[in-house]
Amino acid sequence: MNHRLATPGNWTILTLTSPPDTTGVAQIGMGVDSGVVLQNVVVELAPGETVTRLVQNRGQDILIRISGAIPPALVRARPVGQIETSVRLAGRSLARLLREQNLIGRRLSTLVRLIAHGELNELRRRSIRLGRGFEHAPDTPFAAANKAQAPALRVRPGIGPLRVMALTPSLGISGAPLSQFELMEGLSQREAISARIIAWQDGPLAQRYRDIGIPVEILPLPGGKFVDPAGLRSWKAALTIRLAGDNTDLAFVNTASMFAAIEAATAAELPTVWNIREGSGQYAGLNDLPPELRADAISAFAHANAVVLVSRASEKAWRKAGAEGDFVQIPNALTPLEQTAVIDRDEVRAKFDLDPEDICILNLGTIATRKGQIDLLLAIRDLPSAVSDSLVVWFVGGQDEAYRKRLDKLANDLPTQVRARMRFWGPVEHPAAHLAACDIVCLTSREESYPRVILEAM
After folding, report:
1. What pLDDT is recorded for position 422?
2. SS3 assignment, position 322
3. Is the dihedral of CA 301, 302, 303, 307 positive or negative?
């Protein structure tokens, strides 16, 4: 199968994606005339794989000969020179405008209208006024390629709310999914966006999304683990095809573990904002990836229009790991909890059978190695009985079963009085009552970027 692409300019970003069940070999010719290939590149594609190549075509057509049934819709080319400025400006402006919580709906709508009407000078002026002016990339092909891989926002008539596809690993009751839910809920209420959700795993938040009119789609990860190359390639190809035929304006990707969603959206020529909440690759699970997937995860930073991190320390950690992209820091925030306004501390303590002299310690978060709850038990074990006998210890959050067994084993070494007053509540959708009843919130995490639990406790 032959594909002929007319691409002006000297340098072109070429993206090839094979369907989940198809292998292929692509022979790329630049400067093709009457079937004579003057320069040649051969690319092998595994099932579901996406490959991006920078080619120097000097204004001439590109001819691609493919052995394998790869549809024309999955063969894409973008001239480097024509999109660099608009892509970087659009991505930086989008991320910067996300900071302005009280004006976010109006400003996002303004941003989309300016882009749609080609008002790049006005966008540049506003971006500089907001303190986020942009710089041009160095005039080298490799620097240009690194900065120009993120697609520009699509122009469409009759601009309304920004159509956002939000992607998240889980819909469980934990920090990252909750933060994304609150963001999507708030922007939807302001009519700044029209959101839809795609997740690897179902969970309680799915119904909360549906209750406010936001559709949810579960696109499970084959094998259930993002460290499996074959399963991840298959999922990425399915998502690429799904997004390529969609009418979405922007993909909002939640957490570092969903780096494949950035690659899929890029292959579908869909601009992306990547909200990374992990402090580094170690606790995002990226260190457990095979080398080829680890390289894909790091390269995905350059594909996103904007990479939103929740702290400056996180940016330093990711840069140290080799990540380069358009980074912006936007600290975590909380939607005000209406329940806290009516909670009476004495009343909820009585409900939980806490005596006035009891000291209740609350650990709020997923029971897992990276959260380090075992340190709390070790500290309690070393306390004198005069102190430990007055303790009530609560763990609230989902759990990793293997790590929970380690905690149970250690708990058997604790004084009987402490062990009898220790409770694992599991996931709690609204933990405001637990927060109001406790005396101490104990955060034991090995690493955090900008912990949501501290904000909730405050």
Report:
1. 92
2. coil
3. positive
- Strand residue runs (E) in 183-271: 193-201, 216-218, 250-254
Q: What pLDDT was estimated at residue 141? A: 33
CB 394 within 8 A of CB 360: yes
Whole-angstrom distance, CA of residue 255 vs CA of residue 34: 48
CA distance 378 to 404: 14
Q: 139-166 pLDDT, tens per residue?
A: 333 333 344 455 655 544 456 788 999 9
Of the candidates 453, 417, 419, 427, the residue with the CA atom closest to the CA atom of residue 438: 453
- Chain mean pLDDT for the chain: 75
pLDDT in tens, 107-148: 455 555 444 444 444 444 444 444 333 233 333 333 333 444
- Per-residue model confidence (pLDDT) at position 197: 95
| Buried-exposed string 51-90: b where 16+ CB fall within 10 A, e elsewhere | bbebbebeebebbbbbeeebeeebbbbbbbeebbbbbbbb
Tokens of 92: 């930086």
AA identity, residue 163: R
Three-point CA angle 98, 121, 192, nearest 5°: 30
Angle between helices 120-129 and 80-97 (to 10 degrees): 40
Question: Of 255, 261, 297, 300, nearest to 278 (Cα)?
Answer: 255
Q: How many residues in the chain?
A: 458
- Which residues, in sequence order, are bridge partners of residue 251? 165, 272
**Residue 4 buriedness (CB in 10 A; 0-12 / 13-18 / 19+):** exposed
